[in-house]
UniProtKB/TrEMBL annotation:
GO terms for molecular function: oxidoreductase activity, acting on the CH-OH group of donors, NAD or NADP as acceptor. Belongs to the short-chain dehydrogenases/reductases (SDR) family. This is NAD(P)-dependent dehydrogenase, short-chain alcohol dehydrogenase family. The lineage of its organism: Bacteria, Pseudomonadati, Pseudomonadota, Betaproteobacteria, Burkholderiales. Pfam families: adh_short_C2 (PF13561). SUPFAM superfamilies: NAD(P)-binding Rossmann-fold domains.
């Protein structure tokens, strides 16, 4: 069976840990060359991955894949431009941009939330997606489209990491909800602008997952019980659940999907 992403090149931001790491590994397994990007090359030690001591790009290479690491602050235009350029310099083109890097702060209402935390959240979660999309699409427009397995053509694909927090209100997460709702709106707008150019722009909306970002919640018995109670499926998700959705959106199987918000949430938004 042919690999789903054979000869494709993908950039994954926030690739050192959690969802980004799982997506990078899944894409590489299906034949893609990966540019792993993050502030730090090493994984967050609070994560649940069994192989945290091995950096994502090194693990891909160890498994026989092609990978390259580029340090990038997604809030800085020059960094993101350099990231896309590095992908093209290293592997010849760019086919998939996964804007995954994100942040979240402690629970607080709008009354207690600090302005600095709001600013950082919006800068990383919204501006980071805007910049990543901007420079990826700029590259897509320069390059020749590739022929898909069904005979159609595609210039490139953008996959943005939104959240259930962009679809519903989550208690005591004003900045995070605002930022992810912005990602939802931005994704839909760009999908409309670039559909005629055969550029897919979609987003994934994960629910509560076992990652470093929510470890403190999962280790608090009361909060963990509440999160499990809000999710109809009998257990919380994993980064691998999200990586499977990302793989689908990056593949030729999703040719006619654009402007979609793919929920991977164990039924959280179903009621």
């Amino acid at each position: 069976m042919a690999l789903k992403l054979q000869n494709r090149v993908a950039v994954v931001t926030g690739a050192s840990s959690g969802i980004g790491r799982a997506i990078a590994l899944a894409f590489a397994k299906e034949g893609a060359s990966i540019v792993c990007s993050d502030i730090r090359k090493s994984a967050n030690s609070e994560g649940y991955e069994p192989d945290l001591k091995i950096d994502t790009d090194d693990l891909i290479v160890q498994r026989g894949g092609a990978a390259h690491f580029v340090s990038c602050d997604v809030t800085q235009s020059k960094d993101v431009q350099a990231l896309v350029a590095a992908a093209v310099d290293k592997f010849g083109r760019l086919d998939v941009m996964v804007n995954n890097a994100g942040v979240a702060f402690d629970f607080a209402t709008v009354l207690e939330e600090r302005e600095v935390d709001f600013d950082i959240t919006m800068a990383v979660n919204v501006k980071g997606v805007w910049l990543g999309s901007k420079y990826a699409i700029e590259q897509f427009m320069k390059q020749d489209p590739v022929t898909m397995t069904n005979g159609g053509q595609v210039r490139g694909r953008v996959i943005n990491m939104a959240s259930i927090a962009g679809l519903v209100g989550l208690k005591q997460q004003p900045a995070y909800c605002a930022s992810k709702a912005a990602v939802v709106g931005l994704t839909k707008e760009m999908a409309v602008d670039f559909a005629e150019h055969r550029i897919n722009v979609n987003a994934i909306c994960p629910g509560f997952l076992a990652t470093a970002m929510v470890r403190s919640c999962l280790e608090d018995e009361a909060t963990s019980k509440r999160l499990h109670g809000l999710t109809p499926w009998p257990h919380l998700g994993t980064p691998e659940d999200v990586s499977k959705a990302a793989l689908f959106l990056a593949s030729d199987d999703a040719e006619w999907m654009t402007g979609s918000m793919l929920t991977v949430d164990g039924g959280f938004t179903a009621p």
